[in-house]
Specification:
Order of helices and strands: HHH
Strand content: under 5%
Helix content: over 70%
Number of strands: 0
Distance between the termini: 43 Å
């Protein structure tokens, strides 16, 4: 019996990329909170989430439309070397989770 291939819906890809953006934003802004104070730190968090979320959501949208895996969809938008940035961000995210 042949297995059916499971695919994510547009909403599923949106939530996947949004979660990744939130995780990376938390790692980077966490180091900025103490010296900035509450109000400036909150602004940094919101701006980081907005920028990171927008980039990753657009990557997820392209992947949903083209039915490609995530790293392949980033290559469409950012080129081969640009997609390495997302690989590096994934590594940093894993290091942050480990820490």
């Amino acid at each position: 019996m042949m297995e059916e291939k499971t695919t994510l819906s547009g909403f599923g890809l949106f939530t996947l990329w949004f979660g990744a953006a939130v995780s990376m934003a938390e790692i980077f802004t966490g180091g900025l909170l103490a010296p900035l104070g509450f109000s400036e730190g909150l602004k940094a968090i919101l701006l980081g989430h907005l920028i990171g979320g927008l980039i990753l959501i657009l990557g997820g949208y392209i992947g949903a439309k083209s039915k490609l895996p995530a790293i392949m969809s980033t290559r469409i938008s950012f080129g081969r070397y640009g997609s390495y940035l997302f690989s590096l961000l994934n590594v940093l995210q894993l290091i942050g989770w480990t820490a």
